[in-house]
Amino acid sequence: MASVTLTTIEDIKARLGIPASNTDQDAVIDAYREAVEEEILAKTGFTFGAGSRTDTFTDWQRGTTRLTSLRPILSLGGVQGRVNAPQAGFQALGADVKNARDGRVLLVGWQNAYFDPRTGDSYGQTAGWFKWREYIWPIVTVGYAVDPLGSETNPLPKALKTAALESVAALMARPAGSGALQSVSIEKISESYGQGAKVGQLIAPAAVALLARYTRDTVTMQT
Fold this sequence. Notes:
Layout: H1 9-16, H2 26-44, E1 51-61, E2 64-67, E3 73-83, E4 89-99, E5 104-110, E6 136-146, H3 158-173, E7 183-186, E8 189-192, H4 205-211, E9 221-222
Antiparallel strand pairs: 1-6, 2-5, 2-9, 3-4, 3-6, 4-5, 7-8
Helix pairs in contact: 1-3, 2-3, 3-4
């Protein structure tokens, strides 16, 4: 099975007007392609790798949501939280997928726990402030299965492919301040390149708008 990528050397060379037979810059183009792809995946939370993952969160309050490091979520596995008192250790917790596409998980709370943290255990050893607020677990681990980008149920968005292509093309055009590509125009957004153009930014400014709808909000949300 062929590996999945956001763009290819062939597409980038066609965008730059480089003949397919000219392989002089293929290594450089591929290095830029890999760097841009890694940056886009990091910004969006997508991955090409399938399988099970486990994320660790700190200070997660019952009734709030957090984003998993990767998305979309296919299914949740085990969710555990560490309690401080009266017996330090991990307990099974309940959680629901709030938004599978975004990877947002809602912490429901205790499941098979030995006590309700807000009211205390049979020995009355729970602090009183638990009674007027929702409990916060200092450490929570969440196991889940992720749907890889490029699968039948998670196809490659055209916006991500275009952003990768235009970003690599822009990087290839910048070093000399001129070249086959003088500007990038994506829908109604354009960027021109010349001497002194900013170097070191992997994602072309004109491509940032394409990634906007796929960049996740990392704010913890209260339900």
